[in-house]
Amino acid sequence: MRADSSPSDAPQTLVALVGTSPTPPLLSALTFAPPRLVLVHSADTLGRAERIAKMARRLCPRIEHTELFDLGRDVYDFRSVDGRFAGLLPTLGGAWRLCYTGGTKVMGIAAVLRHLDLFPEQHHWRSYLDATTDALRFTDGSVHPGGPDSSTLTTTDLAKLHQVDLHPAEPSARPDEGAELEARVLALFRDQLSGIPDSEVIGNQIMPDPGAPEQSIGDFDLIVRYRHRILCVEVKKDPDRIPGAAGWAVTKAKRAFGSATRVLLVHDGEPGACSRFRIADYDPELNGAPLHVRARAELEGEFHTARDLLEGFFLPRHGSTPPDPVQAPVPAQPPGDHPGHNDGPLLLMGVGGSRLGVLAAAHAYRPSQTVLLHTPQSEREVAGLAPAVCHTLFAAENPDEFKALRRRQLPARLRRYRNRVKFGHTAVDASDAARVAALAHAKIDQYASGDTPVVADVTTGTKAMSTGLALAAHARGGCVTYLSPVTRRVSCHAHGPVGSSGVAAVDWSSVLRGYTPLAVPLTGRIHHQLAEEQVDTDLLDSAAAVLREHAGEQGHTPTVWVDGTVLADSAESPLARRSVDQRPTLVVTVADRAVGLTAPCWSRRQRLTPGDWAHAVFAATMRLNAACGVAGLTLALHRPGEGSVRRALDLVDWLAWTETSSEEISGAESQARHGRNPRTATEEITGHEESLRPKVVSATPGTPEFRAALTAHLRGLGV
């Protein structure tokens, strides 16, 4: 805790929202050091809030009281969240700070707008942790001097915060050449960072298996910490082993330490023998992952000082000078009624995450103008997103013509909609709510006439972008909405639930990039080596046939999509075929929903362990989640009697950091573990974690159990 972190006139209470990442609320607590810390959480994040409270009291003696406040399970409905949050306000007394980095967007926006109404001029009491620059940003665009305070944190603390206990690995009785390389890399980091404050270099550590503490669920060759950032180092003597190790290295590092983590892969080959490009060829999903690759010779030749190491692996990218503060918009009254289909509102959204949220909002509001603000990271999304929005608008407004139109006629018809989709003239900083608000305010002035309703939909984009859009819309008397991708419920900050968005027409080719429609069974198209060694094609074909048949019985026209890298005539790099089990092999799209199918082959030539199967299934789930969010569901297919599926599912739960598990094996092994049934159509998925968990279907193809399990999951998606 810095001496100047909490001046005498500062609020004595900090309200911090808790989400899936526990690090930002803890850093805010350590930085502002309030005598009273109130952690606002959902039913899903109670365990995280408890760990934050305990660690905050231990690391910061100035924090005398910690309290937990539960917003319940449905933290995606503005009326529910705002109503519960209003119950907290009388207990806060006078002035209070707000850290809104954690929690859902609905939680954050409801809290920010409440705080803005109470303390309109106190922007420096509302903060958001910028994960890119490590700046605590306020709602006027200024930043907290000095950044977050992590001076009392240790590597062990950060791991425990993420429910991981690290233990030193037992020294090997027979050190090999790999151990010698590991020792050299360890010595380099220790020599260079010796005496550097807020740094640690720790040798080989293991993560005990929660289900079998005497065993290891994963290990790190060495861990380097600088402030609250972590570098996990994986050492492989042979550079050819690097691509296959990269995915698991990133997965376990993020699980143990959260998003402020990077991975360094070191090999003993020639410089350039392996690179990020080769890793991306092996697994395209790792393109842009937080990892570095270095040969030992490069590491020893390029990094001569501590400054070299810190700038290369830890220090965030800052702009040349901090930006001047921006005056946040002044609150105004919302309109009397929520705009309907025929009101032609101006729709403001941020680009980021799944495209399905943008398409669903376009379908729900039928806007006269759609303005999409993008970041430098999402700039590549812009070109392909406009045609997809036009496709959805045309289908919503002219459904009969859309159905009758031939596919080759569609592009010409969609050109009439181009002038209704606009983008910000410049990219915005995804963590700067004030500048997003300023740009959104300018777009409202540009495109909304005096009586044009304004809707800022915050379903997509980052939390700070969504907050900026909300500030701008709130100031112009507009509506701030969130559209649930699962239930299709539209929730408005001013009006509460306002109905359903309906089912949007989705141009799936723009969402499932890298996939192509499959009109015949996979068995006849897949590369023969993959069918023998990687995926169970018969199981995949059987599941796709059941889903297609059931969807057709419900009046839908499903489409089966196949990962392009598995096809025999694929032009992709042969390296990519070695990671096909880490992506859904097939995706069945039904209306605005997607079901990913993955079936890593237990009987492959090289023995598949439960850990291998769990990592492959989890990676495939993450891939579909990135494209579809919670509107996508991954089914991991398994033949009864093959491998240890229950053990593998325990490992998947650990990877997804699921603290309260429900039964997720359906079919022949549906009574395993807790004995609960699979999720039904009446249940809601409200936790972010749930969308990161695959559902395991363990049944023999052609049996009633196989069909029942698959159709139950399809109904659970709302089809």
TrEMBL record:
Bias-annotated ranges (Basic and acidic residues): 681-693
Compositionally biased region (Pro residues): 322-337
Stretches the record annotates as Disordered: 316-342, 663-703
InterPro entries named among the record's database cross-references: Restrct_endonuc-II-like
Protein name from the UniProt record: CRISPR-associated protein
Biological source species: Lipingzhangella halophila
